[in-house]
Design goal:
Length: about 325
């Protein structure tokens, strides 16, 4: 379990290092949803996503001699870039296991931040086993994308900032992949605003956390086939699920089509470039999957790592 003190300690480590991303509003969004909506734009974070918060918090917490030997991580892209950036800032090196079908923009960016990239088949190979083996073989510290208290606490600083700028929220919506972002954010939100409801959002094809909460135990599904590549977890993390089963009020689902509509809305109306998983929480509100008339609602847009060609392809327009 993590506590609000862990999140506040992470906030201290990240002060002046992570971007304090803006909280944005839109009268059109409010009119469409009947709520007062506050969007935390983590797509403008270092590395283009919230993941930098957790990666930096964990790597900076490692003993200096461990950090000097280097770190290894596995990721579909955002955690990969975050670890690469954080390792470079902290005088370390990074090796990243990435799915072979990761969007090229994320592969290129990860390499561009100085990391060594090793690819694997996400549908037939176990990234956790591969990561553990690589860490043991090379003597590297494993930085998991969500299964670590320091990672979860770092991610929770996004909600801490949001609530500081938009107090009195009735509802907080955030995407759910492995569960680290929502676990950290729920920890912060429930401590700062005890009456707040926290709802996670998953793609319809990747509802492992929703099924797990209903079953009262972690449930494994087939690797989801969804445009939301950052939410393709097949089972909730053990640590994240322990937090989320205690703190989440609900998990709702969105379709790929609803995610695309939200990406278009955020681009057209709020000038935010979002990747599919980054837009899923906004999609739930815009599509009516979550109803909050008259409420003050916080929405975390978790990432914006999508190349221009892929963005245009997803929205059905020619790239140039």
């Amino acid at each position: 379990m993590i506590s609000i003190e862990d999140v506040r300690c992470a906030a201290t480590r990240l002060e002046g290092i992570a971007h304090r991303t803006p909280v944005l509003t839109s009268r059109t969004l409010d009119a469409r949803t009947g709520a007062s909506v506050f969007v935390k734009a983590e797509c403008l974070q270092r590395g283009g996503a919230f993941k930098f918060r957790g990666a930096y918090n964990m790597i900076s917490s490692l003993p200096a001699d461990v950090r000097a030997r280097g770190v290894v991580a596995y990721s579909s892209g955002n955690h990969a870039q975050a670890v690469a950036i954080a390792a470079g800032m902290l005088g370390s090196t990074a090796v990243i296991l990435m799915p072979a079908d990761t969007p090229p923009a994320k592969l290129d960016a990860t390499r561009g931040y100085g990391a060594e990239v090793v690819t694997y088949d996400r549908y037939h190979e176990d990234r956790e086993a591969l990561g553990a083996a690589l860490a043991a073989e090379r003597g590297l510290a494993l930085v998991p994308p969500y299964e670590h208290p320091a990672v979860m606490a770092g991610q929770g600083t996004a909600a801490l900032e949001l609530l500081a700028e938009a107090p009195g929220l009735d509802l907080l919506l955030a995407p759910v992949g492995g569960g680290g972002l929502i676990a950290g954010c729920a920890t912060a939100a429930k401590a700062v605003a005890p009456g707040i409801r926290v709802v996670g959002i998953e793609p319809e094809a990747g509802d492992d956390t929703r099924r797990s909460l209903a079953a009262g135990e972690r449930v494994r599904i087939e690797t989801p086939r969804t445009i939301a590549d950052g939410q393709q977890a097949d089972i909730p993390g053990e640590l994240t699920f322990a937090v989320n089963r205690r703190l989440l009020d609900a998990v709702e689902l969105v379709s790929d089509a609803e995610i695309l509509a939200a990406m278009a809305f955020l681009f057209d109306r709020m000038k935010l470039v979002t990747e599919p998983s980054g837009a899923s929480a906004a999609a739930a509100l815009l599509a009516g999957r979550v109803h909050a008339p008259g409420a003050r609602v916080g929405v975390i847009v978790s990432g914006g790592n999508v190349g221009v060609a892929r963005f245009c392809e997803l929205l059905g327009r020619p790239a140039g």
